[in-house]
Amino acid sequence: MDKNDVNQEIKRIIEINKAAFDNNLHKIPAMDSSLKEGYSIIKPMIAEFKKDFGLSPAKYLESLFSSTFGFDYRGDKIDLKSFGHWGRSIHNYTWASAYFKSEKNQPYSHSIQVYVLVDHTGLKFGFGYGDRVKNNHRHVDIFRTDEKLKAHMLEIIDENNLDVLDEKAGSPYVNIGWDKNKNLIKKIDDFKNWNERVHVIKNLNPADPDYPGFPIVGETQSVFAAFRGLLDNPIFYSEPIKSNEDLFNNNTLIEDDHYENSDDLFLEDNEIKTIVDLLMNKKNIILQGPPGTGKTFMAKRICNKLVGSEDTLNISTIQFHQSYSYEDFIQGYRPTSSGFELKDGIFIDICNKAKEQPHKKFFLIIDEINRGNLSKIFGELMMLIENDKRGEDYSINLTYSDSSENFYIPENIYLIGTMNTADRSLSIVDYALRRRFAFINIEPKFNQRFADFLKKQNISDPTIDEIINKTSELNEIIESDESLGNGFKIGHSYFCNIQNIDEKSWLNNIFNFEIKPLLEEYWYDDEDSLNNSIEILFGS
Predict the structure, then answer these.
(1) pTM as predicted
(2) Between these two residues, 336 and 212, which has the higher pLDDT value?
(3) What domains lie within the chain, and their CATH numbers?
(4) Could you give the CA distance from residue 108 to residue 252 in angstroms, rounded to a whole number?
């Protein structure tokens, strides 16, 4: 496409938009009766443009946008959208954008966009969000938390002399006529301060002394080449949404590497994906299984993956027990040197942190969740922990709080409980609370991933085979025993703490002082079964 032709056509589009601006047509409310008069000014100019160049201004920008990429970018995941002056109102801009869509054609207003725009001042092109993308949207969250992506964005901004401006949801571009230093992103930490949407834009203004004219092809190719890597990145694609108004609660998008297996989890990739998807959707899950299946370790590892760090303040861990109370967990009076003082528990503390940083996810891991009296511990918050009861609309008054103080659970709080299915001393989990959690069974994993892990720890093949064969045989017996069952199997984590001694002594210690006492507990009243299991354990 010839640069001079582009310059001429862009100038004509500016004239149309300037006419709208000069006549204050962009200020006419949608569907107002004066729209007809406004269109009488714009319509002839659009008709003349179409006659001269074969396309409307919007469709021309769309074709220019597509050609800038060097190929047709339409496909299963990305589509093009153009917008002109026709509709419920008249605007002082014309734009075209590439946007992400889901399997159910997620609208451009809910998506990340790369766009080119012409208003009454000149030409703009860049990267931003649709007007329905709010500060708790997964797309925004990714940009705030992904260090590599943030570094790449800073590189793009620096290399292409771009303006990065914060904006409330509204028009699809930022007017550069105000303080450029406000809300500019200059370093990694600045990403934490995004309010709702951020636009990264290149502004070509005729009033600028260094104004280059309209070499749009070269300019856009330079910037869009950098953005193309972002467009191709699969982390931006969302699952189909159920509601245009409820993106956050229903968005199960997780970075690809969050599904990648860890050497010491021994789960298949699809198993990790299932756990993550349930956690993101339900917001409350319980990992339940036999002793030694690494439930707590798994919970921490998954949380670390989701926040992108192994050392984070976003993850808290507590353990329930029979004496744990509402006053410990939620709020209650504590003795002081001068009497009693109302103190917030750990759950209130983490909720307050989450409210202060709505762009981050906060996780509370409750170890041995079924050891506490759950109805009493959660109290009136039992209703609010439901995934669809989060937010200010469901604020309630807490037991010990002043009547004017309402409390709510923010949307960015996630609860992970762990439960040992072999603990005989515990009662059945309250059914009212049970329906508020998704329960995920965690099985012993004496599989190839487990074998590979031991091998990397320099455990010999014969010892690995002995561990797998003996525990597998014992677990078959345990599972078939009517008094025990699947929830009492021996877990793999007994063998994951590799001690710095010879492997024979290490394994013998585990068999003698960890596995054998467990078997004695299981068959304390069944001598034959106990003797049989011990023979398997120590036999050759």
Answers:
(1) 0.54
(2) 336
(3) 3-236 (3.30.930), 256-441 (3.40.50.300), 448-538 (no CATH)
(4) 18
